[in-house]
Amino acid sequence: MPPSTYNILMYSHDTYGLGHIRRTMAIASHLLGPGVNILILTGSPIVGRFTFPEGVDFVRIPGMIKKSNSVYVPHSIKVNAKHALHIRRNIITATARAFDPKLFIVDKVPLGLKNEVEPTLRWFKKTRPGTKVILGLRDILDDAESTIQEWMQREYYRALEDLYSEIWVYGTQDIYDPITEYRIPDAISKKMLFTGYIPRAVPPRHFGRRLEKNDDRHKVVVTTGGGGDGYPVLDSYLRMLENHPDAPLKSTMISGPFLPPDMRDEIAVRARSLGVLFTGFSRKIEKEMAKADIIVSMGGYNTVCETLSLKKPSLIIPRESPRMEQRIRAQVLSDRGLCRYLPWSDLDPESLYTAVMDAIEAQQPMRQAIDAFDMTGLEVMRSRLSDFRREET
Predict the structure, then answer these.
(1) Pairing of strands 314-316, 340-341
(2) Whole-prediction pTM value?
(3) Distances in Å between the alpha carbon of 56 and those of 3, 38, 51, 134, 217?
C-alpha cells in the first residue's frame, strides 16, 4: 500500500531581495520524497523565473516593497497598503485551509508581514493541533538590542511560545548563539533546534574554473544578491578596475534583479568597457560562482551558504542598514577564517583593491577552514521530517 500524502506548506513573505525565496526553495527541494507535496506561499515578484522540481509548486501573493523596517507598500497593484495586506492575508488563510498541510514552515517572521500569518497559525492551533508548525530562522537576525526591542514590541516571544511546535535555526550555536544574544526564555529555547548552515547544490566539476591558455589572471565573481542596495559595491569595483587597469583579475558581475534599471544600464555600459562580464540575474548563479577563484559579495545568508558549499574563498562587504545582520555574520565568519571582510564604511576603490588582493593571497588558509566547516542544515531537517512522518503512522 503506497504511503499517504504528506503535505508541506511553506510561507516566505519576500518583501525585499532574493534571500527568503532562495532559502525556501533550497529547503523545499530537499524535503521532497515519496508521497510529499510542497506548496510555497510567496510574495516574490520573480518567483516565476525559477524552475521548480516536480512535487513543489507556489502560490503568489501580492508583492510588497519594504520602505523601512515598519513601512511596506504594494509592489505592483495600485491599491493602498492596508488593502494589499488584506488580500495577502485572505490568500494565505484560504490556501492553508484548502491544502491542509501536516507541516507548516514559516520563514523568519513569526507572525508574518504585519501579522498576516497569525490567523492561519491560530486556525492550526484550534482545528489542526496535530500539524507541526515550524519557524525557520537564519542564524543572525540583527544586532541584539534591535532584535530584542522588535520582538518585544511585536509580541514575538508570546507567539513563539504559544503557536509554534519547533524553531529551526539555520546556523550553529557555537558561531552565533541567538538564545543568549536575544535573551530567549527557557520555554522557547527548548523548542529551538540548531540545524547548521544550509548547503546548496554544487554544479558538476566541469563547471569549475576555466580560463584561456596562458591566462594567469584571478577569476573574481561579484554578486550583490537581489541588488536593491548593491550599487555602491558594483560602482566601487568598477572604479577599482578603472584605477588599476593592469590588475591580474578577470571579473564577472551579477547585479541582481532589483538593482534599479537606470543604475543597471549604467553599470552594464561601464562593465563592458572594462571587459567585465555583466548580467542582471542568473537562475543558476552557482554555476557562475563555481568558476571563481574569489567571490565578492555583501554576505547575505544565502550567498554565504552558496559560497561555503562551493568551497570558495570570499571577500564580504556587508551592508549595515537597515539591519546589522550582514556585518555581524561577516565578523563571526572572518574570525573563523572562513572569509575576509571589508566594512561598508571603508568601501572605496583603493581599500577594495587592497582587500581583493589580500583575499587572493589568503586563498589557501580560507580553503582549509572551509573544508573543515560542516554544513548539516538539510540533513537535520530531513531527519526531523522523517520523525514527523513516523509519528503519523
Answers:
(1) parallel
(2) 0.92
(3) 18, 5, 10, 18, 41
Q: Enumerate domains of the chain plus CATH numbers.
A: 6-199+375-392 (3.40.50.2000), 218-372 (3.40.50.2000)
In the DSSP assignment, the letter for residue 343 is: -
The secondary structure of 212-250, three-state, reads CCCCCCEEEEEECCCCCCCHHHHHHHHHHHHHCCCCCEE
Cβ atoms 199, 378 nearer than 8 A: yes
Phi/psi of residue 294, nearest 5 degrees: -135, 140
Q: CB count, 10 Å around CB of 276?
A: 21
CA distance readout (Å), 311 to 161, 255, 262, 305:
38, 22, 34, 10
pLDDT tens digits, residue range 17-44?
667 888 999 999 999 999 999 999 998 8
Tens digit of each residue's pLDDT (9 = 90 or more) over 256-306: 888 999 999 999 999 999 999 999 988 778 889 999 999 999 999 999 999
